[in-house]
Design goal:
Number of helices of chain B: 16
Low-confidence stretches of chain A: none
CATH class of the largest domain in chain A: Mainly Alpha
Radius of gyration of chain A: 23 Å
Shape of chain B: globular
CATH superfamily of the largest domain in chain A: Cytochrome c oxidase, subunit III, four-helix bundle
CATH superfamily of chain B: Cytochrome c oxidase-like, subunit I domain
Mean pLDDT of chain A: 95
Largest sheet of chain B: none
Structural class of chain A: mainly alpha
Radius of gyration of chain B: 23 Å
CATH class of chain B: Mainly Alpha
Strand content of chain A: under 5%
Largest interface: A-B, 75 and 79 residues
Distance between the termini of chain A: 55 Å
CATH topology of chain B: Cytochrome C Oxidase, Chain A
Mean pLDDT of chain B: 93
Number of strands of chain B: 1
Number of domains of chain B: 1
Number of helices of chain A: 8
Structural class of chain B: mainly alpha
Largest sheet of chain A: none
CATH architecture of the largest domain in chain A: Up-down Bundle
Order of helices and strands of chain B: EHHHHHHHHHHHHHHHH
Helix content of chain B: 55-70%
Helix content of chain A: over 70%
Number of strands of chain A: 1
Low-confidence stretches of chain B: 6-17
Strand content of chain B: under 5%
CATH topology of the largest domain in chain A: Four Helix Bundle (Hemerythrin (Met), subunit A)
Oligomer: heterodimer
Chain lengths: 283, 547
């Protein structure tokens, strides 16, 4: 357990090529599945297993190296930059779907119900929001309200941000119990959020007629909330790994990059939800 | 940081010392060394340059005469689509990432890239993405043939895509992951691994342009990924993003695509500027003129790239205010670009110039890129663009900014740095022959396409009206000569790696090069590990005029 003063440069790496193979097999399988080929789902499963093995192997290696003091301050800075710019790329990714919502609501849907489009093509179409277009694609649906489950979910995610920060304070003050309790609470709140969202989706599909196929409203609603929900799941998995490592005694007040990265990611997902709550549910 | 530790994946205390590459072919699969990965990127890009080039030869053969000669129209359209995708994502972008991998650590005095394992992964993700894309060539229905922009609703029609669409989309996702990981690595390396003596405004222009390019990549690759994800759900999961009947809008795809697409073209040209700004001062034997203005011009171009996208779609039916805004915003780009062209010219002014192959390619770049820029300015004028849109004029324009610009500079970089990397000198005579054949044939190839476009010949068609026959034939002849000339480059690269002229190159390689960049103070060939201790001083010759 010596703290290395040199910038650690690994000499060879086997996990990257394994992970790449897994991801490629999974995506090729998905493409085959979409094309109706029978081997598609098997390929997806094989690729997914390889990918998960890679994640476990690679992160175990990183955790071991970190705990044995191989990463100096400089390595920590590189990792933090990596995570920051990764989150930046995620912002751009979410930006596309928010942009889509903004463009359709404010520009293209009003255009559909006005001017030459209205005169020549869709004279009966009233452009309002929510809409499933002049073709009434997907049939009648009810839009999702804001003050039921979505509002509860907002409170859940905001609270989880607080518990996450509380855990961080515990880590900084070397209070292991506070760290573990805070993380466990964060993961629990995250899973509760996912559970409520599943209920919300179930209600939408079974009782409200609202599906992914409900025109542009259904498309943007499910794309934005679904993509976000996927991120909550990923964030909860990351936090669970950090919780597991905390229970094993990993992390020190001055060395806990994995915790920080997980916390940044969680807060990012949290902020995106606020955007969703305002622009998808409220407005 | 004062020194660098070298370790295996499985931490081994007997193994802490400096060592060379692993034995055998496996070395290339598991390497984390920036020079190995740079070599992988460059060789892969070279291979893809010839794959994409072969597709261009099919296109030019079919267009040699009017009428249908060799291929059926759907396959012709596959060729134009795949030529673009392979050249952009398989050749030009990876080639510049390869140069970044090799050169950035050498130029800033870093021992390696900041995140070496991720560096390995970003290369293999690229290979995986290109494999998925290439696999569509052998599928029922053939490769995608709706154009590299993948516009809906065309690209969603069964007859256009066959089974290829999901593979092409997932290929874009993998290429995006690869680019983002590569870009994150480059930013972390530049900001975190520089020799302590090197301030930001001491960095070579190549490093600066890549820093800014990496930012562009992280900002826009996810945008493209989002756009094709919506294509996927529209095709397979009943969404209506690009379907007007459901309240969506196909034009939305064009907006999103070009919000990615315009920064994307600068991703291919900014590192080009960086290499040119590195090579020209060495052979003009003068410091780069206007270093600081070069940095700011690069940043301005990058900023402007985000706010001009709709000049790719002037004819789509935008409100007039939009047309005007995008027209004027686009014209502004000529200002920082002009700054660069004048700076390169001023660098050469009264220089003690010599004309080795890298310099020849760089000078040709300055002249021919300027021409590509001017045709761009012509098309920025919205009312004129209605005439040029989707004709061979645009084909001529962007090929001038990509072939005698990006590709020429990549060639120049090869001639410039290969002696440093391998320790062998290339054959100057064959190099110059390669240059003259390329520069003459590239103009025979693309210049007549301006005339064809102005006369109204549309792009992406396998057949054309009889009045376009002469210029098409001339263009094709230029294309065949250009294609064949590139085999010389392949030979030169092979020959140089194998020993070249047999002449032992000095550490500097080029006269007084060490005044211009840190890499020339290292031994030739560059050892497997460099800058394990960072240099104490850095050359500031190239930034003299800023201090």
């Amino acid at each position: 357990m010596s703290t290395n003063t040199a910038y650690y440069i690994p000499h060879k790496a086997t996990w990257p090529v394994i992970g790449t193979a897994g991801l490629m097999i999974m995506l090729a399988g998905f493409a085959n599945y979409l094309n109706g080929s029978s081997i598609g789902s098997t390929m997806m499963l094989i690729g997914l297993i390889i990918f998960i093995v890679m994640l476990v192997g690679w992160f175990t290696l990183q955790a071991k190296e970190s705990e044995s003091g191989m990463y100096n301050h400089g390595v920590g800075i590189s990792y933090r930059m990596g995570m920051m710019w990764f989150i930046f790329s995620e912002i751009a990714f979410f930006g596309v779907f928010f942009g889509t919502l903004w463009y359709t609501r404010n520009l293209s849907v009003p255009w559909l119900g006005s001017g030459a489009t209205k005169e020549i093509l869709y004279s009966a179409y009233q452009s309002t929001w929510p809409t499933n277009g002049p073709g009434n694609v997907g049939g009648h649906f009810e839009p999702m309200g804001a003050w039921g489950l979505p509002f509860v979910n907002t409170l859940l995610l905001l609270s989880s941000g607080v518990t996450c920060t509380w855990a961080h304070h515990g880590l900084l003050a070397n209070h292991r119990e506070q760290l573990i309790k805070g993380l466990a609470a964060t993961v629990f709140l995250g899973l509760l959020f996912v559970g409520f969202q599943a209920m919300e989706y179930h209600e939408a599909y079974t009782e409200m007629g609202l599906t992914l196929g409900s025109g542009i409203y259904g498309s943007t609603f499910f794309m934005l909330t679904g993509f976000h929900g996927f991120h909550v799941c990923v964030g909860a998995i990351i936090l669970s790994v950090v919780l597991f490592r905390s229970a094993k005694g990993h992390f020190k007040p001055e060395n806990h990059f994995a915790f920080e990265a997980a916390a940044w990611y969680w807060h990012f997902v949290d902020v995106v939800w606020l955007g969703l709550f305002i622009f998808v549910y409220l407005m | 940081m004062s020194a660098v530790a070298e370790h295996d994946d499985h931490h081994d205390h007997h193994d802490d010392h400096d060592h060379g590459p692993a034995k055998g072919l496996l070395r290339w699969v598991i390497t984390t060394n920036h020079k190995d990965i740079g070599t992988l990127y460059l060789l892969f890009a070279l291979a893809m340059f010839f794959v994409g080039g072969s597709m261009a030869m099919v296109i030019r053969a079919e267009l040699f005469e009017p009428g249908l000669q060799f291929v059926d129209p759907a396959f012709f359209n596959s060729m134009t689509t795949m030529h673009a995708l392979v050249m952009v994502f398989g050749a030009v972008m990876p080639a510049f990432v390869g140069l970044a991998n090799w050169q950035i650590p050498l130029m800033i005095g870093a021992a390696d890239m900041a995140l070496p394992r991720m560096n390995n992964m970003s290369f293999w993700m690229l290979v995986a993405g290109v494999l998925l894309l290439a696999s569509t060539l052998f599928m029922e229905g053939g490769a995608p043939n709706g154009g590299w922009t993948l516009y809906p609703p065309l690209v969603l029609q069964p007859i256009t895509v066959g089974k290829a669409l999901p593979f092409a989309i997932f290929s874009v996702h993998l290429l995006g992951i690869s680019s983002i990981m590569g870009a994150i690595n480059i930013i972390a390396t530049i900001l975190n691994m520089r020799a302590p003596a090197m301030r930001l405004m001491d960095m070579p222009l190549f490093v600066w342009t890549w820093l800014i390019t990496a930012f562009l990549l992280i900002a826009v690759m996810p945008v493209f990924a989002g756009a094709v994800t919506m294509l996927l759900t529209d095709k397979f999961f009943h969404t209506s993003f690009f379907n007007a009947a459901g309240g969506g809008d196909p034009v939305l795809y064009e907006h999103i695509f070009w919000f990615f697409g315009h920064p994307e073209v600068y991703i291919m040209i900014l590192p080009t500027f960086g290499v040119a700004s590195t090579i020209i001062p060495v052979f003009a034997r003068k410091p780069l003129f206007g270093y600081a203005s070069m940095v700011w011009a690069t940043a301005s171009i990058a900023f402007l790239s985000f706010i001009v996208w709709a000049h790719h779609m002037f004819t789509v039916g935008m409100p007039i205010a939009g047309e005007l805004y995008f027209m004027y915003a686009t014209m502004i780009i000529a200002v920082p670009t002009g700054v660069k062209v004048f700076n390169w010219t001023a660098t050469m002014w009264k220089g003690a110039m010599t004309f080795e192959t890298p310099m020849l390619f760089s000078i040709a770049f300055v002249v021919l890129f300027t021409m590509g820029g001017f045709t761009g300015l012509m098309m920025s004028i919205a009312p004129s663009d209605f005439q040029y849109h989707d004709t061979y004029f645009i084909v001529a324009h962007f090929h001038y900014t990509l072939v005698p610009a990006s590709i020429f500079i990549l060639m120049a970089a090869g001639y410039f740095w290969l002696p440093k990397w391998t320790g062998h000198m290339y054959n100057e005579k064959i190099g110059q022959l390669h240059f003259w054949l390329s520069v003459i044939s590239v103009n025979i190839l693309f210049f007549p396409q301006h005339f064809l476009g102005l006369a109204g010949m549309p792009r992406r068609i396998p057949d054309y009206a009889i009045q376009f026959a002469d210029w098409n034939m001339i263009s094709s002849i230029g294309g065949f000569i250009f294609g064949a000339s590139q085999l010389l480059f392949l030979y030169i690269v092979y020959d140089t790696i194998k020993g070249g002229t047999g002449e032992k190159v000095t550490d500097e390689v080029w006269e007084d090069a060490s005044k211009h960049g840190l890499e020339w103070t290292l031994p030739s060939p560059v050892p497997y590990h460099t800058w394990t201790t960072p240099p104490s001083a850095v050359p500031t010759e190239h930034v003299l005029d800023t201090h």
